[in-house]
Amino acid sequence: DAGVIQSPRHEVTEMGQEVTLRCKLISGHNSLFWYRQTMMRGLELLIYFNNNVPIDDSGMPEDRFSAKMPNASFSTLKIQPSEPRDSAVYFCASSLALQGSNQPQHFGDGTRLSIL
Amino acid sequence: KQEVTQIPAALSVPEGENLVLNCSFTDSAIYNLQWFRQDPGKGLTSLLLIQSSQREQTSGRLNASLDKSSGRSTLYIAASQPGDSATYLCAVPSGGTDKLIFGTGTRLQVFP
Fold this sequence. Notes:
heterodimer; A: mainly beta; 7-stranded mixed beta sheet; 11 strands; B: mainly beta; 6-stranded mixed beta sheet; 57% strand
């Protein structure tokens, strides 16, 4: 059974360029989470969706960041324009959210982003 | 505001030892707590999820306990092996949402 799939695994680009990170959820899951991990701040939630609807985007750093779910199984996280301080590992996770039931989140292997 | 703390930050032990990793949280109004493992260059793997109504969960050599009233959880690893070497993170939901707040992790090294 395929897990959460993220692409690309690594991205190196110059400051000012647009960056698009992609995530495919586990089949049947209905919640999608985007996290960012850095040495200084650890693992932080950027945004999460339930049934394609953004529920909490309070962790999105600023307007340069945007996330979408064009369909139930796929999501993108865009940074435009990118800055060196955006360099981090970005993780996507999915889960099956059921009312009254707690389900674990399953993580992808992440995208290591370096902005020069 | 929920804050999650893990101690120790790093641990290095010989193979075969029994280990206890600690996690504490400031807001006890949680509905579950999760323990994850992260290997270098990889994402997180969920190890155990403890519901708020439970006191412990077991999976193989791992046992996690939860004491909501004191804001603490422990992860017990029995008979540690070199393959257990990884960073272990605990996480709790923020408020009544699915938003997880993570601890800073315990980096474990088990040497042969």
